[in-house]
DNA sequence: TGCTTTTTGTAACAATTAGTACAAAATACT
DNA sequence: AGTATTTTGTACTAATTGTTACAAAAAGCA
């Protein structure tokens, strides 16, 4: 179903991705519409015509981020390798992202800490992302218990909650301490909890 | 040593505290100098005359926050009660702060996630606060091991890193999920790791 | 009483902010 | 070719931003 009217000169997905980088790096408040225009290459008219306003565009970036990384994390956690190794891979993968050049950590964590109190869209996507991770971990920890890969006196719930907590802690500390050696120790320390 | 000149009509400490609330709630970028004037009751002249500029005032609030809560946390962790109970108290105390009305979590965590990448003062105080917590935990976990209160095959370091990670994770998740029941479960799950 | 010093209130500054008005441009359909 | 529809570029808005200028006010000291 082709549209009538002048065709767009830009790729919508690419623009959302470019805008995401701006919000990710600077945060919502510190990102000006001018920054967004420059980063996306769009003029103000095109940006407002296509996305409504700054906050609507922000929402699109949150959704896109969630969908992208949910897929990646799900992939890591469903590989045909031992459960513990998969979990460790999730942690080392996150750590590697956190220590890439110009990394700003996890966009959704940053957005949640900055704004979830005052922005229900941020609240929603932060929540969705955390719940997804929790459910996925629950599934594979159960898998590990059934296959006797994981043997623990703790309940499945305790194991999962503790892992989720460590995951968010690692990513937050990586933004604070910024020391890869320390991060690696934390991953190892976390793994001892599902020994 | 009394100063010459017109005396101040305000209490410096009170002003820093009021300004802290603004930065804490809105973040640095979203806090306008007008917000700061209104919250502190000072005119623009007085504020700039006394604190230089917005960022210098921000620095004062970071320092004050660190010093205040460091004292509280240290007090919790050095009570004459079992080590495990002290650690649990640190977690429940933090959780209670996170679920107070209009809570914005830990100011330093929020500031670090928002700005530590681009603001060396935030970086510094976030780092100092984390290191303080780490060192204090190290001291009392050692204490717990020597008194045989804590018996674990894990190294002291692993225990401490895991606790620190869980602490930051809990506080970050409390900003994201905002569910006290879940938070309580996480504290319990964390405590099973130093069983 | 004057002189110095500091604080205070008012007014202003240039720059930036998010968002809009409007006409020209580019397409599809008739 | 002409019309409808959408996108685009330029210019603009009104409000807000952080910061400063300056004179009046309030104290100590001579």
UniProtKB/TrEMBL annotation, chains A, B:
What PROSITE patterns does its record include? HTH_TETR_2
Q: Name one GO molecular function term.
A: DNA binding
Which organism was this protein described from? Companilactobacillus kimchii
Name the PANTHER family on file: HTH-TYPE TRANSCRIPTIONAL REGULATOR YJDC, TRANSCRIPTIONAL REGULATORY PROTEIN
The keyword Cell inner membrane is assigned to this record? no
Q: What is this protein called?
A: HTH-type transcriptional repressor ComR
Q: Which UniProt keywords apply?
A: DNA-binding, Transcription, Transcription regulation
| Segments forming domain HTH tetR-type | 9-69
